Amino acid sequence: MPNRRRRALSAALAVFMSAALISAAGGPAPAATLDYVGTYVWHGGEASFGGFSGIEISPDGSGFHVLSDRAWLYWGSIERDPQGVIRGMSIAGRAHLRDGKGVPLKPGYLGDSEGLAIGGDGRIWVSFEGLDRLAAYDDPDAAAIRQPRPPDLPGMRVNAGLEALAIRRDGGLIALPERSGGEARPFPVLQFSEGEWRRLTEIRRDPRWLPVGADLGPDGFFYLLERDFRGVLGFASRVRRMRLTEDGPRDEEILLESQPLQYDNLEGLAVWHDGQGIRLTMVSDDNFLILQRTELVEYRLRD
């Protein structure tokens, strides 16, 4: 069976199983249809290429920014066919992110960049774990503009800090840590606005699933990409969407739950409108390992 057809059938099965699980649990079945669009395996020759944990897509789907977990930012253009399927990725530039003094960040404790969000004004926001913090960049080559440190949260530690980052239309940021401090403890949702942090709400945790990426869609929903590492069986991924309120999430749906090894280690999520529906674009972190790959996976959501 051709690889593309196999992936499409696997994706359809995953969506069907997710709907069945929600229905069996007593909740409403999703009101949306999720269509598999395509997968693009991306190769790069630079030593800094890989480890991508964050992604932003331009409103028309033709441009991208991706963030590696070693403090490198890449940007460029996307070639698509008439059906909107990715056929090529062209890198226009890359930058080694810097600290507040203008010194390039080293991989590890200070340079573990995880979350990426770009505002309507072009300002680039990056969340780091290791030394948990948020930094802003008016230009990729500029020194970081330091921001107030986020509050200490249960479960936050080295390699388990602010993992998912999204930006609202008003410029406020939403951030989630990778862990909550216990399998039965919900994930706290932080809001950063006008230089201040506050706890907005919390999101239910399903024991093995951990947040790795997030975005606020043009439909007003908050989209959360989660990952389950299953050892030798590889990674499974899922996407939830919900409306965030101070009284808790509303209208929550599990849109996608992949099978182990169906995709690589999906960590970054961008949500945009492609003219036919809401497009979900996800990018994988290959951990700079030869056995893994950098791939972009896309779905279209039709309500």
TrEMBL record:
- According to the record, the signal peptide region is 1-24
User: Which controlled-vocabulary keywords does the entry list?
Assistant: Signal
The reply to whether Signal figures as a keyword in the UniProt entry is yes
Could you tell me which residue ranges the Phytase-like domain spans? 48-288
Is this entry keyworded Signal? yes
Q: What name appears for this protein in its UniProt entry?
A: Esterase-like activity of phytase family protein
Q: Which Pfam families match?
A: Phytase-like
PROSITE patterns in the record: TAT
